[in-house]
Write a structure and sequence with these properties.
Length: 477
């Protein structure tokens, strides 16, 4: 009888073990060993492996009545978006664009639909595995464990780049053991992600929302009261080491907005504490000025550190006479050109779009004139020997081009349904308020992040929305 009880307990805990494994391996975005994926498929989350076992197990438990329904309110617009995207992709086959560099419509469509279902698997699993406060605490802890793994590997990269203690060729072989990409040659830290901007995206949409909200709401998930603060400091340094302009600007903008929205009481306390020091002894006054000097030194040091890279320095050192010239000077011209070319597909088929994965067939023929002569990356792409298939590099442009206005509106309805779930938790207890602040930070960051990437398979844009959707479903059940 004892064996039977232990067996049942182990079976019920097994989904948690798999979910913890998925969260722990989340930093690995481009896992080398994925079957049936060509070299051009870069988004290969290692976390998909434990999810592939977890999802069937959850379905079996649900059918046996041992787990609540997977349904959450946000699934309605998301399901409608999915059905519309598949229907319009089927319709897109009738348009039948001319093959481009060995790529045909059916192959791109199948790949795009597969990436959509990968993203959906992260959302559904996150919402299904977070239905109680205990579930939420478990999820946050394992996300932080994954962050620690990322920090350790990033530290190894930093030692390799900036000290003579580790050989770069050797560490490159270590990285190629799990990733499809070697170390970044420009000595930018990429962690376990494919490239530095992907790591910055993880920080902005997953890790920073948790750590910043933990500090703001004074919520702790570990036994050490200083641990989350230490992780926040290290993660900030890691973000700087990526030299990702988009990631840094997103975090700065959203963090500032969150302080104004929910952190005004903390600002008031800090303000009062600082000026009370002028009425205290010299020791208290010294402590306050030392902290102020440290903050100013950190900001100045970060500015000087980032300014070492010409890629970053171009943001403020430019001789552009117009906004379009400025965009080109800061190396954002190619992204703007790709998005503009993709939107031509939307102009031709505004209601239905041209089908998932098909916007690339329209980009090269509709690039703006200025991009043909002033953007080196575009010239490289247009080389007849190139095999590269273009992407919009902007989620909103991609959805308009590939799913039309109907699909775009449904996706935005889904996004705002998540926002509604976030706001509903502001009236809860301290943990629920932390969840709401964390999710609001993530929602704002994802909204901005989607303007710089176009992959539906990226776990970043699904994980925290799934968590808040699952927790909100308990309130409505």
């Amino acid at each position: 009888m004892k064996f039977s009880a232990n067996t049942v307990r182990t079976t019920l805990n097994f989904p948690r073990l798999l979910w913890g494994a998925a969260l722990f391996t989340l930093p690995v975005t481009s896992f080398r060993y994925f079957p049936f994926m060509g070299e051009g498929t870069l988004v290969r989350p290692l976390a998909l492996y434990p999810l592939a076992i977890l999802i069937p197990l959850l379905i079996i438990q649900w059918m046996r009545g041992k787990r609540p329904s997977p349904f959450v309110s946000s699934l309605i617009p998301l399901a409608l978006f999915t059905l519309v995207a598949i229907a319009f992709t089927s319709y897109g086959a009738l348009i039948s664009p001319i093959p481009l560099r060995g790529q045909i419509y059916s192959a791109r469509a199948i790949r795009a639909i597969a990436t959509l279902f990968i993203g959906l698997s992260f959302f559904i699993t996150a919402s299904w595995m977070n239905r109680s406060e205990d579930d939420l605490k478990f999820t946050i802890k394992w996300i932080l464990f994954g962050l620690c793994l990322n920090l350790v590997w990033s530290a190894i990269q930093a030692v390799t780049f900036y000290t003579p203690f580790l050989d770069k060729v050797m560490v490159t072989h270590w990285q190629l053991a799990f990733s499809v990409r070697e170390l970044v040659r420009t000595n930018r830290i990429s962690g376990m992600a494919y490239e530095p901007s992907w790591l910055a995206g993880q920080i902005a949409t997953i890790y920073m929302p948790i750590l910043f909200s933990s500090l703001l709401m004074k919520t702790r998930f570990t036994t050490k009261p200083w641990f989350e603060s230490a992780l926040l400091a290290l993660t900030t340094l890691l973000l700087l080491a990526t030299y990702s302009r988009g990631g840094l600007l997103i975090v700065i903008a959203v963090a500032g907005l969150m302080v104004l929205l929910v952190g005004r009481d903390m600002l008031k306390q800090i303000w009062l504490w600082f000026f009370q020091g002028f009425r205290s002894n010299y020791k208290e006054l010294f402590i306050r000025f030392a902290l102020l000097f440290t903050l100013i030194a950190f900001i100045a040091g970060a500015f000087l550190f980032l300014g070492r890279k010409n890629y970053f320095r171009r943001l403020w050192e430019t001789s552009a006479d117009s906004f379009s010239e400025y965009i080109i000077d800061i190396n954002a011209g190619a992204r703007s050109a790709y998005a503009t070319g993709a939107l031509s597909a939307y102009e031709e088929h505004p209601l239905t779009g041209v089908g998932l994965g098909a916007s690339g067939f329209y980009i090269y023929n509709n690039l703006p004139d200025w991009a043909l002569t002033t953007v080196p990356e575009i010239a490289k792409q247009l080389d007849p020997t190139s095999k590269l298939y273009p992407n919009p590099k902007n989620m909103y442009a991609r959805l308009l081009a590939e799913t039309g206005l109907v699909g775009f509106v449904l996706f935005m309805v889904f996004q705002f349904s998540i926002l509604g779930d976030i706001l509903s938790k502001l009236r809860g207890n301290s943990l629920m308020q932390f969840l709401s602040v964390m999710a609001l930070f993530a929602w704002l960051a994802i909204t901005l992040y989607n303007a710089t990437q176009d992959s539906l398979a990226t776990p970043n844009i699904w994980l925290i929305p799934g968590i808040i959707a699952g927790m909100a479903s308990q309130e409505h059940s």
